[in-house]
Amino acid sequence: MEPFLDRLDHPVYVVTAEADGERAGCLVGFAAQCSIRPARFMVWLSKVNRTYRVARSAPRLAVHLLGRDQYALAELFGGETGDDVDEDGRRVDKFARAEWTPGPSGVPVLDGVPAWFVGQVEGHVDAGDHVGFLLAPIASGSRDGGGRTGGEPLRLSDVSHIAAGHPVD
């Protein structure tokens, strides 16, 4: 399957969640629109990721499309884990180093990304080491007012060397 997969270079996303007073977010490479009418989008979260554990209880998730100029944001959400604690024993807070605004149900919406949407979690699909979250969009926005003029998205090949905060063996 690698000859096929090695040719793919799809956009990457940051998915954020809020549940029970906890925020989490991670870089996601497995995601896609999966229905036109009704509009639906599926994001896949690794079971070893803290974002997955928070998202299981979240009624809504936010999905953020990153621009080519947002490598640092991808590195923050892809290369660090909220499971780590600082020298004072406090959980590392990625959101303290990113600009964001509370969206519907308090889900963090990252500021300055080309486009984002918040989706109601409609269901889950267990697919091995990842679980799919089926999302029904309820709110969206973009930094350029919409359309396809927001520049090139950050792609898998741009972030392939980021060491995952929670690597999958």
UniProtKB/TrEMBL annotation:
Keywords: Oxidoreductase. It comes from the Bacteria. The keyword Transmembrane does not apply. Residues 142-169 are annotated as: Disordered. The keyword Oxidoreductase applies. It holds the Pfam family Flavin_Reduct. Residues 5-163 form the Flavin reductase like domain. SUPFAM superfamilies: FMN-binding split barrel. This is Flavin reductase family protein. It comes from Streptomyces tauricus. The lineage of its organism: Bacteria, Bacillati, Actinomycetota, Actinomycetes, Kitasatosporales.
